[in-house]
């Protein structure tokens, strides 16, 4: 892989048909089409990449070697803008030969177009609103301190939860969205640590999936690669498992 000194350019991400290929659902669901006029993106043979400028995050899909080459090009062209990336798994190793790559995390981007099988506890799920934000923050801080999305996040369109007979929150989750495309993204699903194994998380996840599919026609989520219980649950709910990714920070200095 060799970096270029060409200025960054905006590319059409949808000229290769990658979004229709297995392993490129992140492009299909994650990149707006038509793209925003100010979106900076790159296209190469077998891969495309686009930049989330506010976060300094570069997204890419396609063949790992081609995606790594685009990430390298972007990092050299915009060294002060590209701070981290998500790419097909394996691209991090290739990039590590040229850049300092730190904190790699393996993910799977999962998606479904279908409503899941019914869960008997779905009727316990209720919608929450801004008056419940303090409760949600306290609950997430205790039972899921590494949650990705918090109460008040601008990308969240819905919070939902399950309460016990005393009215205490015992599970919660959010319907967020991918920044560029607005695609629904399930996030911050958490269960009371003392009540895990009772099907509360499964009921909430089922409800949120059904809500998204009925409202938007699909639902997406991120799953840590080594989360075996989540893998079994999402597979049971019908989520596709075809898009292994890796996220990491990079430094060109």
Characterise this structure.
The chain has 2 domains: 18-110 and 245-251, no CATH class; 114-217, Gcn5-related N-acetyltransferase (GNAT) (Aminopeptidase), CATH 3.40.630.30. The chain is 25% helix and 29% strand. It is elongated and about 55 Å long. The model has no long low-confidence stretch (mean pLDDT 93). By secondary structure, the chain is of the alpha+beta class. It has an 11-stranded mixed beta sheet with strand order 1-2-3-4-11-5-10-9-8-7-6, with helices on both faces. The two termini are 18 Å apart.
Quickly list its features.
11 strands; 6 helices; 25% helix; 11-stranded mixed sheet; Aminopeptidase; 253 residues; alpha+beta; 2 domains
The CATH topology assignment of the largest domain is Aminopeptidase
CATH 2nd-level architecture of the largest domain: 3-Layer(aba) Sandwich
How would a textbook summarize the main sheet? Answer: 11 strands, mixed
Indicate the low-confidence ranges by residue numbers.
none
Quaternary state reads single chain
Overall pLDDT, averaged? Answer: 93
- Structural class given helices, strands, pairing? alpha+beta
Helix content percent band: 10-25%
N-to-C span:
18 Å
Question: Please, what is the CATH homologous superfamily of the largest domain?
Answer: Gcn5-related N-acetyltransferase (GNAT)
